[in-house]
Amino acid sequence: MHELSIAEAIVERAAETARLHGGGRVTAVRVTVGELAGVVPDALRFSFEVARVGTALETARLVVRDVPARARCAPCGGEFAVGSPPSMWCPRCDGLSRELLGGRELEVTAIELEEASG
Amino acid sequence: MCRVVDVRRAVLAKNDTLAGALREELAGRGTIVVNLLSSPGSGKTALLERVLAHTSARGVPTAALTADLATEHDARRLARSGVPVRQVLTGGLCHLEAAQLRAHLEGWLPAGTRVLYVENVGNLVCPASYDLGETLRITLMSVTEGEDKPLKYPTAFGLAHLVVLTKTDLERAVGFDRAAFVRNVTGVNPGVEIAETSARSGEGVESLVDRVLAVVRGAAVHRPAMAAAAHAVAHANTHGPDGDHALPLGDPAGRLP
Ligand SMILES: [Zn+2]
Question: Which residues surround ligand 1, an ion (CB under 5 A)?
Fold first, then answer.
């Protein structure tokens, strides 16, 4: 279950960003997870609850945005969902796409910080 | 009140950076890493034993590091080939990371090593996400694992520079559907080559070693579509005001430099 390592990396990245911005409490972390990122979102959510303990993210929410995998077919010019199980074979012309347009994302996109009152 | 800070950074950026640095450092010493991914029971150790012997018999200084959870038995088997072998324990971790590999190499990797084979932890899920600084990533599976395997582990097969099929001597006995296998591999990794091997008969071992040695001499490796997509994402920086409309999909400017 490498989702724990990934959750730890998310917490580390978010905590570092929080420190750079005045060190407030982090209320949410937004991440983008592609369909082909090799990460199971539920396992990531569970791991995040473990990884955040004792950090500036102790009470932060994890907001996951899923990105479907899509490909472009050179032979017919069409775009299609790579699907699950994934296939780069074009459903329209059965040509082989070599261009994945998205679905490999694994990024921290934003954190939400509580403003110090006053 | 709260405020939103844009971060937009790959979660595994730290490992990727360390891996890139290790790759460069090793290249400076004339060494390439071959990262081997497979499930337990793929016959990887038996094949690697033969590959090590053949690589070293050709006068190419070779070493191997195994992180397979199994036992020290693997390391002893590999050591029969006569090349330096190191067994590392991952402490229950399901994959190796670049920083760990680097630490294990320090003070051990013999000077002048041209090829270091790394037998990653035996599973096809977690190791796929971690670049170890390898120049050649090989994903292996045996005919006994079934032709659908690449569909079940798309990132392991999708990010491979070379796919190796093992135990081909059992192909007929298990009713392996080779045409479907090729279509499945190609469907997750268009254009990747498939090497067929049998550690039992020795078939395909020489030709696999040829491929590895070509890379040692600087031959280009296959560039998987999935790897290119990840790179494009890492470089994309267009995003909407709240970060939720950030769609770095297919950004043509995000191509490999
Ligand atoms: Zn098409």
Answer: A 73, 75-76, 78, 90, 92-93, 95
Domain of B129, CATH number, reads 3.40.50.300
First to last CA, chain A: 43
Which of B6, B9, B11, B226 to substitute to test the interface with A, most A CBs within 10 Å? B11
User: Mutating which of A4, A25, A35, A88 best tests the B interface, going by the most B Cβ atoms within 10 A?
Assistant: A88
For residue A67, the chain B residues in CB contact (below 8 A) are: 247, 249
Chain B residue with Cα closest to A107 = B10
Domains of chain A: 1-68+103-118 (3.30.2320.50), 69-101 (no CATH)
- State how beta strands B115-119 and B32-37 pair: parallel
3-class secondary structure, A1: coil
Residue B155 within a domain: yes
- Flag whether B249 is in a domain: no
Q: What is the average pLDDT across A68-74?
A: 95
Does B248 map to a domain? no
For residue range B150-165, what is the model confidence (pLDDT) as tens digits?
999 999 999 999 999 9
Encoded tokens for B237: 């920086």
Taking CA atoms, what residue in B is nearest to A65?
B244
Say whether residue B90 is in contact with chain A using an 8 A CB cutoff.
no
Predicted structure pTM score? 0.89
What confidence tier does B70 reach under pLDDT thresholds 50, 70, 90? Answer: low
Contact A5, A43 (CB under 8 A): no
Partner-chain contact A5 B10, CB within 8 Å: no
Q: How many C-beta atoms surround the C-beta of residue B108 within 10 A?
A: 12
Strand order across the A26-34 sheet: A61-67, A26-34, A106-114, B2-10
The domain tally of chain B equals 1
Asked whether residue B125 carries a pLDDT value surpassing 50, the answer given is: yes
Tell me, yes or no, whether B247 lies in a domain: no
Q: Does B226 sit within 8 Å of A104, measured CB to CB?
A: yes
Provide the domain limits for residue B26: 2-239
Helix, strand, or coil (residue B115): strand
